[in-house]
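Form 7-S
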Amino acid sequence: MRLHNIINKDELKEQMLNSDEARTTISFYHYFKVEDPQRFRDEQFLKWSELGVFGRVYVANEGINAQMSLPTENLEKFRDLLYKTPAEPAFSGLRLNIAVDDDGKSFYKLTIKIRQKILADGLIDDTFDVRKKGVHVDAENFNKLADDPNTLIIDMRNHYETEIGHFENAITPDVETFRASLPIIKDMLEREKDKNLLMYCTGGIRCEKASAYFKHNGFQNVYQLNGGIIKYAQDVKEKGLENKFIGKNFVFDERMAEAITSDIISKCHQCGEPANTHINCANDACHLLFIQCESCAVKHNKCCSNDCKEHIKLSVEEQKILRHVKVFNGTSFSKNRFSVNKLYAGEFNT
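Output:
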């Protein structure tokens, strides 16, 4: 049986968008010793394909990090299959984060890749004890700690994620990558080591090693939100708790974000009007990630600049030729804060 997708991605995406099948988006991660990542990867690809799983999965010697969707009717079958995985008994009872605002249109194919790490954290793991993590807290205890004046709430995500949504009073470092945030936060809070360090991210994985990193660097009271924003949003709704998250939760799939509250805290990068919809520039040679309101999407044909708007009018052959010689705002796919600042400043050809 094949171990890779063989259908054109555009065709797969169109099939997904036109499908009426009820699908559920989930995510999970687990740190454990994978002796043979390639074999483990191939085994899961075969099993999950039979259940109609789409998604993006990373496997490494240190574990697995998965974001996926599957037919809702197969969710329990998948859960049972996962919990009975022979390679890792500890999968039994593993928490699956269920998407909050989900139309099932999150993924259109299954991709499982072998990586050095399941998360690009930039850390050298043997320089500190990764097992000495922070204390996991649920939504209720997160709120209690958040109300404590001795608590610092730290957002472990990137600038384009925090721009559309974050917790009240959270510190949101202006960083492009998770690995860049760790030393910046450590230096920023060097004189605050006696305070409660309350960390959160999308689903919890970024806080796992980060909390151990901060404890290793002298922070005494380190806490992390169990299950991240996704689990928090579900818990506050089910338990009737105060929701301290404002806006949208950025997600790394076709949905781009899931609404936690109706608040719009960000602005269109082209006109400055309130907006919280991320898109990638319609020019594939650019592909810049930016926020665009509905009005500007129509005006600029879902492009970030006039250059890109004119470029997509060319024939496919002409576009391919120019792709190698012309530089666009997001050439090589940029999520750079500098690019966003230039958009705000009106320096782009908008």
